[in-house]
From TrEMBL:
Organism: Roseivivax marinus
One Pfam family linked to the record: BLH_phosphatase
Statement: the UniProt record of this protein carries the keyword DNA damage: no
Entry keyword set: FAD, Flavoprotein, Oxidoreductase, Quinone, Transit peptide
Entries under SUPFAM superfamilies matching the protein: (Phosphotyrosine protein) phosphatases II, FAD/NAD(P)-binding domain
Record InterPro entries: BLH_phosphatase-like (IPR005939), FAD/NAD-bd_sf (IPR036188), FAD/NAD-binding_dom (IPR023753), Prot-tyrosine_phosphatase-like (IPR029021), Sulphide_quinone_reductase (IPR015904)
Gene Ontology biological process terms, A to Z: sulfide oxidation, using sulfide:quinone oxidoreductase
Residues of the FAD/NAD(P)-binding domain: 150-265
Domain Beta-lactamase hydrolase-like protein phosphatase-like span(s) in chain numbering: 2-109
Name of this chain's protein: Uncharacterized protein
Length: 559
């Protein structure tokens, strides 16, 4: 038998025989649903045979036959009723299991988010993208989808989304563009490190979304539920459908707070904080100011994460404050990193190590945070040293700064756009999707091997805009992205190590060495971060002014 578990209550399978029923009972199944009409195949046992075997084994059975390719709304309602009435766990079957998985998807549509349904069925080996519109419509066949159509649809209005919309408008003012995003507020997330260090006010890192959407760009204030790239369509929550000629995907990534046991329940209290959330960054500064002794832990999860330097930036700024106030000698600092290096580009490590030694911080590599007990002030780490068996260690803390695990958004991971790891699958130079020629991606959601930073999106947006316009004109891609990313590492108040690099760790300095030597801590880099980058973000990047971000011409390989 090929039994595929959907959830704790239901599994589905291809056709079973009467002899299989005894084995199902032994495995704990208490009911069977048959979704295959009798007589569909010459070697197919009748439902009566299956029902008789079920009763002989103390199980219940229900017959909800569905003709292949003709799953009706009434079938889904009957399946839902059967699941509610029958004792579980239940096995449902048809010829291949697909009809049973489809019925479950439609039955669950009102109680579960579409991405969760698609993920569970996909994990069981069934692709439900063909009925995504019906699932989004509460399990019912849509009668009026109210389709809207745009020349370019942009999914996500974060740094990448607004920047690429502005860059497109700068190149082709009359282009019909729609941006899809449900958020009311747009955040300057690079500023949250400075909020946590007492330098910026949180309110200065937020603006209303409506004030930033470029003039002439339609804002669809909704969440995306699924993609139908073969039909050039995006399905929104509530089953509205938007179609497009070309699409740009840039919804950012998902902060998976729930992946760390006990973390959500204690965030914002018990000394547990994170600069990765707008509302928590001020609490970081509050904790830094009131901590006088004990252990301060700063964590970094497995890669990829957005702004890989941010976890240690929080450590440096906190330690600098404790040093300036004479408290550092009483505080035991630990940087618990799931990886094995302090920073991925070796050229910047010597300067960072000077500060690690200055602050007497312990570097605990291969330490991945898996649980937090806030009231008890203990953090549990899974330690995976390369030459040792995995083990768990507990550490007590006075202050715990957490960088959460991060993944692609659920609706991306279960979509046809994703690679095996869940990220949008693009060519790393042109940022065009590898399978769909009219789709591009930028920002944190794509799988190009670059650092996930706002500085990277600043360079990517003009590249994508240039290539989309080239495609509209019917010519080959014009621009390439070289993997540029920047991480201003705030090693102390007033000094920054300005890490700038591209694919493969190649250094990509924006300034002459006499002005800013990125491999050393400088005051000039601090002034750039504190005074210049915020207005560059708000007034240039999000307005289509490509200061120091002009697209690089695409290099065509010689034949």
């Amino acid at each position: 038998m090929d039994i595929r578990k959907i959830d704790d209550r239901l599994s589905v399978s291809p056709q079973i025989t009467a002899d299989d029923v005894t084995a199902l009972a032994a495995e704990g199944y208490r009911a069977i649903i048959c979704n295959r009409p009798d007589g569909e195949g010459s070697d197919q046992p009748s439902f009566e045979e299956i029902e008789r075997a079920a009763h002989e084994n103390g199980m219940e059975a229900r017959y909800i036959p569905v003709t292949s390719g003709m799953v009706e709304d009434g079938h889904a309602r009957a399946f839902d009723a059967a699941l509610r009435e029958l004792p579980g766990p239940v096995l449902a079957y048809c010829r291949s299991g697909t009809r049973s998985a489809t019925l479950w998807s439609l039955a669950e549509a009102e109680d579960r988010p579409l991405p969760e349904i698609l993920a569970k069925t996909r994990a069981a080996g069934y692709d439900m993208s063909g009925v995504a519109r019906r699932i989004a419509n509460g399990g019912k066949t849509p009668t009026d989808t109210g389709d809207a159509h745009y020349k370019v649809v942009i999914v996500g209005a974060g740094a990448g989304g607004i920047a690429v919309a502005a860059s497109l408008k700068a190149r082709k003012p009359g282009l019909e563009i729609a941006v899809i995003d449900p958020a009311d507020i747009h955040y300057y997330q690079p500023g949250w490190t400075m909020v946590g260090g007492g330098i910026f006010e949180a309110s200065n890192t937020a603006k209303t979304m409506g004030s930033l959407i470029p003039r002439g760009v339609h804002w669809i204030k909704a969440a995306v539920a699924a993609f139908e790239p073969d039909g050039n369509a995006v399905i929104l929550d509530g089953c509205r459908v938007v179609t497009y000629d070309r699409m740009i995907v840039c919804p950012g990534l998902k902060l998976d707070w729930h992946k760390v046991e006990g973390l959500v329940e204690t965030l914002g209290r018990n000394g547990v904080t994170s600069n990765y959330r707008y509302d928590l960054a001020p609490y970081t500064w509050e904790l830094v100011q009131r901590t006088t002794s004990g252990t301060a832990i700063f964590t970094q999860p497995p890669m990829p994460i957005k702004c890989a330097g941010a976890p240690q930036k929080a450590m440096y700024l906190s330690a600098d404050h404790w040093n300036r106030t004479g408290r550092l000698k009483n505080i035991d600092i630990h940087f618990c990193n799931a990886g094995g290096v302090l920073f991925g580009v070796k050229d910047y490590v010597p300067a960072l190590m000077e500060y690690v030694r200055k602050y007497d911080a312990s570097l605990d590599f291969f330490h991945n945070l898996v649980a937090v007990d806030g009231p008890a002030k203990t953090a549990t780490f899974e330690v995976t040293d390369p030459d040792a068996d995995p083990r768990r260690v507990e550490m007590e803390f006075e202050m715990l700064h957490v960088c959460p695990p991060q993944t692609a958004p659920d609706f991306i991971r279960v979509s046809p756009l994703a690679d095996a790891a869940g990220w949008v699958d693009v060519d790393q130079s042109t940022l065009r999707h590898k399978s769909y020629d009219n789709i591009w991606a930028l920002g944190d959601v794509m799988n190009a091997p670059n650092a996930k930073t706002a500085a990277a999106a600043r360079k990517q947006a003009p590249t994508v805009a240039e290539n989309v316009i080239a495609d509209i004109r019917g010519v080959a891609p014009k621009a390439q992205y070289d993997g540029y990313g920047s991480c201003p590492l705030t090693v102390e108040r007033g000094k920054i190590v300005l890490a700038e690099f591209g694919y493969g760790g190649t250094l990509k300095p924006s300034f002459p060495k006499w002005l800013i030597d990125g491999t050393k801590p400088t005051r000039a880099a601090w002034l750039l971060k504190e005074r210049m980058l915020p207005p560059i973000y708000w007034q240039a990047m999000l307005r289509g002014r490509e200061w120091m971000a002009k697209p690089e011409p695409l290099k065509v390989a010689a034949e």
